[in-house]
Amino acid sequence: MEVATFKVDDPDVLVRAALACPYCLSSDQRVVLREAPDEWSLRCSCRTCGHQRRVEITDEQALRVAIAPPG
Fold it and tell me: Per the confidence metrics, is the pTM higher than 0.90?
């Protein structure tokens, strides 16, 4: 599974770049925060090419996305 690389205090533009689609490089993503037992993840769906993927995130990154969603 892919692991998110953005820092909690990164500006929105860097968070969007870190979550950009690996196929078409578009940062136009639909991002859904998901919680499972003992882990957080993002369900990312590219609005440009339709590629979907799951990205593992830390507790701190989950808080960042919940407070200030990318885009």
Answer: no
Query: Distance from CA of residue 19 to its chain's centroid?
Result: 5
Task: Provide the sign of the torsion angle of the four alpha carbons 31, 4, 15, 24, taken in this order.
Answer: negative
Residue 6: how many other CB atoms lie within 10 Å: 19
Q: For the chain, what percent of residues have pLDDT higher than 90?
A: 87
Q: Tell me how far CA of residue 20 lies from CA of 36, 37, 38, 57, in angstroms.
A: 23, 26, 25, 15
Calpha distance 58→50 (Å, rounded): 25
